[in-house]
Every structure is written in structure tokens, then in C-alpha cells.
Write a structure and sequence with these properties.
There is one protein chain. By secondary structure, the protein is α/β, with parallel strands linked by helices. The chain is about 35% helix and about 15% strand. Helix 4 packs across helix 5. The longest helix has 18 residues. The termini are far apart. The mean pLDDT is about 95. Keywords: Cytoplasm, NAD, Oxidoreductase, Pyridoxine biosynthesis.
């Protein structure tokens, strides 16, 4: 069996090598020739999987180690009887931690704000549960859910009036509720004065041209973009305007990617009726230096900011993207290659649950907040 795998999928050899020949390739550059004799294809969101890629190939299984499937032509795959699956929820916690890290870096205490969440599926739902567990007031927009499923559902216009608005919707262009350009100029102008807007879902859910126009006339907005319309060839003018920008890596925690690999591996074994030879618990490496001393001499909010920054320096993500943009000089091949290079060479980021905050009374409000974020308090 031949298995073609995106080069950015971690520990693929540990999971799949017992079942066939592994070929690693850059996801955005995969071609029909690469899969002409493959039995299985494992990708991430940068690889369009469609007739142009797979027609005439023997591929019988496609796994995407991501939550979204907008890069898969599901209708064509169904017509060809090619099995496919995604990894729902694998990186949800990673994205939630990205939101925390962004707000902490911007010195915006979410605990006393109203947070609007657009798209309450795997990721948005995880963010909603995490915030409400901390007593944070939330408003949610998701036309695919009912009030029984999420008691904080309301109209989009109400969500846009929140202090913080975070987008976590997949990209859809058909059906009764398409998400492409869900936030166009009309909606962006409704954002509350001094509001914070984050997009960690799909770039084209926000009309990026409209966003630039609005930001050119509204200096009060703080915008965080991890995803971009037309990526990897992102709008450099928009990058200059946002307070934090990153190359589609919110869900790129090492733990989240490993979960995605493991979930696809399970589906792969079921498809080909194979006995699994590897478990996630057997291959997840421990964090060698996982002790984080509790900050002293500062208030709880500043201590929380320092702990988060110690384990995840989100400012470094922003700096690396701006450095690539500066070196590229203008939109084009150099920028696209630099954007993808940042994703390929993204540093190992471990999730909060791997770390222990030491020297803190477990019964304090700070300890309770840290525990709610996933840290262990000793």
C-alpha cells in the first residue's frame, strides 16, 4: 500500500509506516502525478482534493487532519465511492488557547467583557463552554443550532455589538446559510466602538477588502487575523492594520495536530480493515520543562498574562509573519512561499494542559482561573 501524506502532519511514520510505503510531500504542491499510484491520501486544509487531483488514481481513502472539509470536493468523492473523513475537534482546544493568548497579549481581560462567538461548532462551542465556565457573558450566532443546543444564541446583529467578537465558522458557499463574506462592510460597520474582532476560522468569512476599508476609517477597532482571504498571498495593507496577524496557525498546537493524526489513523484502519498498531498515548512526548512559577508582586490579571505568555508567545507568531512580509516586499510568490514556510516550520507549541503552575494556593481566584484555562496548579 502507498500512502501519500502532507509533510506537515506530525508522527505520520509512527502511525502509518506499519501499513505501507509513506511518501511525504508539500500539501499545497500535490499533483495528480503524485497520487497516480497511491492507495490513501492524507492532507491538511491547503490541499484541494477533487477530480483534478484524483481522477484515474487508485486512491480509496482521503483523510484530512483538520476540522474543516471545505477543501474536499465531497460530492465528487461520493460519486467516485472514495471514502473520506476529517478530524472534528482535534484542534479546538488549540484555537481556544490562541484566543486567550491574543487577548492576554492585547491586555484585554475577557472575564469582564461580553464575548460574541460566530460559529459554535467544534471550536466555537469549545470556546463558549470554556468562557461560560468562567462566568463570562456570551452571545452566539449559529443558524445551524437551536436554542436548546445553545441557550446564548441570538441574532448576528446582537453578536456584533459585543466587546469581543470571535469567528469560528467553516467556509461554505451554498445552502441556506453560506458563510462566505458573512461579515461584509455592512456588518463590519456594526462592530461596537473599541471592539475586538478575531478570525480563527476561514479567511473569506470576512470580506477582507471591506475590512481594510472599515479599518482605514475606524482606528478604534482592534483586529486579530489568523486566517486571510486569498492566503497564502495575503493583503499586506491589511496586515499593517491588524494588531496581531499569524499564518493560519491558531490550531497548530503540537497536541492538536497529534490528535488529528490519531483520529485519521483510526478511520484509515477501519477503512482498510487493519488492526491499529499504534496508540496516541504511546507516541505523545512529555514536556521536559513543564513547571511555571506563579508570578509574584503583580495582580491576578497580570499574573495570568505572564503565565500564558510563558508557555505561548503569540507575539512571536505576529513578528515572524511581519518579517516574511517585509522581506517579500510585495504580494507575490515570495510572500506565498514565506507564508507556507512559516506553517511548515512552525515551532512546537504545547497546550496549557501540559504545564504546572507552581507556588500558588489552589483556593485562590487566580488558581481557579488558571485551572479553567487548562493549567495544573501545584
Amino acid at each position: 500500500m502507498k500512502i501519500v501524506i502532507d509533510e506537515n502532519i506530525p508522527l505520520a511514520e509512527d502511525f502509518f509506516s506499519a501499513h505501507g510505503e509513506i511518501v511525504r510531500l508539500p500539501g499545497r504542491q500535490m499533483s495528480a502525478a503524485d497520487v497516480a499510484d497511491a492507495d490513501a491520501l492524507l492532507v491538511r486544509s491547503v490541499t484541494p482534493v477533487n477530480e483534478a487531483l484524483l481522477a484515474g488514481s487508485p486512491v480509496k481513502f482521503v483523510g484530512t487532519c483538520t476540522i474543516g472539509m471545505d477543501h474536499l470536493d465531497q460530492r465528487w468523492l461520493d460519486h467516485q465511492s472514495i471514502a473520506y473523513t476529517n478530524a472534528p475537534g482535534c484542534n479546538a482546544n488549540s484555537v481556544v488557547e490562541y484566543v486567550y493568548a491574543a487577548l492576554a497579549h492585547l491586555n484585554i481581560d475577557w472575564r469582564d467583557k461580553t464575548v460574541g462567538i460566530i460559529g459554535c461548532g467544534n471550536v466555537g462551542g469549545a470556546l463558549h463552554r470554556a468562557l461560560t465556565a468562567q462566568g463570562v457573558s456570551c452571545r452566539c450566532y449559529d443558524p445551524l443550532l437551536s436554542i436548546e443546543q445553545n441557550p446564548d444564541l441570538c441574532e448576528l446583529e446582537d453578536v456584533l455589538q459585543c466587546d469581543i467578537v470571535s469567528l469560528h465558522t467553516p467556509l461554505t458557499t451554498v445552502g441556506p446559510h453560506p458563510s462566505r463574506h458573512l461579515l461584509a462592510k455592512e456588518q463590519l460597520l456594526q462592530l461596537a466602538p473599541g471592539g475586538v474582532l478575531l478570525n480563527c476560522g476561514r479567511g473569506a468569512v470576512i470580506d477582507n477588502k471591506a475590512l481594510l476599508q472599515v479599518m482605514q476609517n475606524r482606528n478604534d477597532l482592534q483586529v486579530v487575523l489568523d486566517v486571510w482571504e486569498w492566503e497564502p498571498n495575503i493583503d499586506l495593507q491589511l496586515l499593517e492594520r491588524v494588531v496581531l496577524g499569524s499564518p493560519h496557525i491558531a490550531g497548530y498546537s503540537f497536541d492538536g495536530k497529534l490528535k488529528g493524526t490519531a483520529m485519521i489513523y483510526e478511520a484509515f484502519c477501519q477503512q482498510f480493515e487493519l488492526a491499529p498498531s499504534t496508540r496516541l498515548a504511546d507516541v505523545v512526548p512529555a514536556v521536559a520543562d513543564n513547571q511555571v512559577p506563579a508570578p509574584v508582586g503583580v495582580d491576578d490579571w497580570q499574573a495570568l498574562r505572564e503565565v500564558i505568555a510563558t508557555v505561548y508567545d503569540i507575539a512571536a507568531d505576529d513578528q515572524r509573519l511581519r518579517q516574511v512580509a517585509s522581506e517579500a516586499g510585495a504580494q507575490g510568490e515570495a510572500l506565498s512561499q514565506g507564508f507556507d514556510r512559516l506553517r511548515k516550520n512552525y515551532p512546537v507549541r504545547r497546550e496549557f494542559g501540559n504545564y504546572q503552575v507552581t507556588g500558588l494556593d489552589k483556593n485562590t481566584p487566580l488558581a481557579e482561573t488558571l485551572a479553567a484555562l487548562g493549567f495544573t496548579v501545584k
